Amino acid sequence: MQPLPPNAPSRIGDYMLLAALGRGAMGSVYLARSRGGRPIAVKVARPELADNPEFRERFRREVEMARAVGGFWTATVVDADPDAERPWMATEYIAGLSLHQAVLDHGPLPERAVRRLAAGLAEALVAIHGAGLVHRDLKPSNVLLADDGPRVIDFGIARALEHSALTEAGIVFGTPGYLSPEQVVGQKITTQSDVFALGSVLVYAATAGGPFGEGATSALVYRVVHQEPDLSKVPPGLVPLIVPCLVRDPAHRPTPARLLELIGPPSAEPSWLPPRIRTVVEQRHTELGNLPGKPPTRVMVEEPPPKPPTLVTPVPAPVRIDPDRKEIRPTGVRFKTSRAVGASWAGANLMAALVTAAIANPDAAAPNPVRLAAFLGFLLFAFAAVRLLVGVASAPLTVDVGPDGITLSNGSESRRLPWYAISRVKVEAHHARPWLVVWLVSAAKTPESLGRGSFTTHKGGLRVYPISHERYRKRRDRDVVELRSALAWYGSTVYDPR
Prior knowledge:
transmembrane; elongated; 6-stranded antiparallel beta sheet; ATP-binding; single chain; ATP binding; 17% strand; alpha+beta; PH-domain like
């Protein structure tokens, strides 16, 4: 908190201003007190926004939607005046500090605290989405740590900033590194975009860094779209919780309600915060009690937001969801081998084999060392072409990973391995030939093969599915990551991430 600036008003609506908390994209943020002594955060729009009639109308609609958000883990909107000389909105205060500042000052949170954080944020998203909103800017500075749990702030106002005078002036919104791939590329944004951001926030809480590293805005948004998240520093116990949130396809991410099921009941320990952070929170309570005027009751204090890098494209926040629209979600994740891709690679290798054979021909005028190298190349390309043609001749395989287990099909027959019959499952990544491998419980019967080497023994388990052997490396690596994510989500109790 800082003293009020000389040009600040003494009151906003019925609220007496006590201190300045900071400035953001919308305007200034003040600590205030109601007539009954309740401390509040009052956010006042910038003058250039106040002169924009379109902004006022959007602001009014967003305030109405934000007021509909309930739940334990959000900062409630208590008052607003879209028609004031400078539109303002008041929310309750939370005596705590932002996740961004807590990790910056005191380091990563322990695993137990990250799980409690995940549960609080998931429950907050359930409330936000239930009100027909998508937050669209969930990040460490928008999460406050209070002694009884986290709180999510700054939902319900950012859409009012879209196409406003600020946007026209070139100021953009959103934080690279915490935006979902669909936000970055301008595709449709749904509630699952918030789930991606939640996963990124949990990585920051557990490691003090985002899942896509640091650097220039352009580098960050490129990594979000084209690279896999770096979870090497995440505690192993948190990986099955975080990986499904960061799946690139929104349809394959869990819902916040499903996340709560995965997290399980909260710890019975009295305080969830590490001692050093808990001490800071207690100091914030004391500071509020020392403010002039009537001492407040137990309250909430909001941290001044840090200065994140701005995104190169406008990324506004909450989106209204049509409550009458019913989305149909897939029940699992499907992968399929391709005859067409295999045939293309076989043709390319066959052509290369013919060229090298012509060079290796004794009648050719090439020097002996060149002919020898060409002969070796011919053997290599011919072997690859034959192997690929054998795969093309085999029936394509489809593997489904879903709530009921793993199902393999060749078009005419299928084999299902329910989760209760699997004792362990993992992806064996070996150069260009990664496999999905399962270990069955002792009472389970080994299924018959469906071709392409399926259900053959391997290290005491069974090779089930060849993961994109016929595809190029980048696509194969992507499929491996997607399959790992599906296993971590649907088969979390038996999935081996090593």
